[in-house]
Amino acid sequence: MIQNKYKILLVEDEDNIRNLVATMLDTAGYQTILADSCTAAKTLYVSYLPDLIILDLGLPDLDGLHLLDFVRKDSLTPIIVLSARADEADKVGALDRGANDYITKPFGSGELLARVRAVLRNNRFSAQEGRLPGGRFLLKDLEIDYDGRRVLLKNQEIKLTQTEYNIMALLSENCGKMMTYAAIIKAIWGGSAQEGSIKKLQVNMANIRKKLGDKPGEINYIVNELGVGYRLNG
Ligand code: CA
Questions:
Q1: By C-alpha distance, which of 177, 173, 170 is closest to 201?
Q2: What is the distance in A from the centroid of ligand 1 to the CA of 99?
Q3: N or C of the chain: less Cβ packing under 10 Å?
Q4: CA of 26 to the centre of ligand 1 (A)
Q5: Distance 200 CA to ligand 1 centre (A)
Q6: What distance in angstroms lies between residue 37's CA and the mean position of ligand 1's atoms?
Q7: pLDDT-based confidence at 30, cuts 50/70/90?
Q8: Final residue of a structural domain among 110, 127, 144
């Protein structure tokens, strides 16, 4: 097992879940820092500056969203929200306030570790690429030339409309992050997510996915979480 040095702050008040997740992370070679309340998590975040935070929303002292806001005031430290809540509105709310991804309880070790790896990798990746002028974005066979406003797949240019290109550029700049309908709509068209604008987004996304050759049941570039949003997979 390769030991890595990533520090993960795990914020969860239920002892059995916290111990279980800590064991999963320890076994995978991560260094875990444990907190059972929002207040404890704030102190530990400031002292350790972890590489990733796994955050339960239902905490005994304050809502987990409080920590999310606290961290996002001055940091892009990736945050995966751990939620027992089945309600899509809670997930969307956490994503729109800056969470990178979420995972719904109960979950297995494989699923959790896959999310952790993806978020850590994409965070490093986007830090290198970002919005550099003349920058290029590369993901498997997909390439985006930001200056030329072109998208290429296996070195072949894909003909996108202006709107489709803008969506691809936005998703690539947030690679690996689950982008909510509202976040995409606001960035592309301005305004809020209403039935009409969500339909318009879905039509554009369907066209993009067709052009990228994404097929259901295969490993695709774009993942759609129904009722929540879209993620470009890193
Ligand atoms: Ca809880």
A1: 170
A2: 17
A3: N
A4: 21
A5: 37
A6: 9
A7: very high
A8: 127
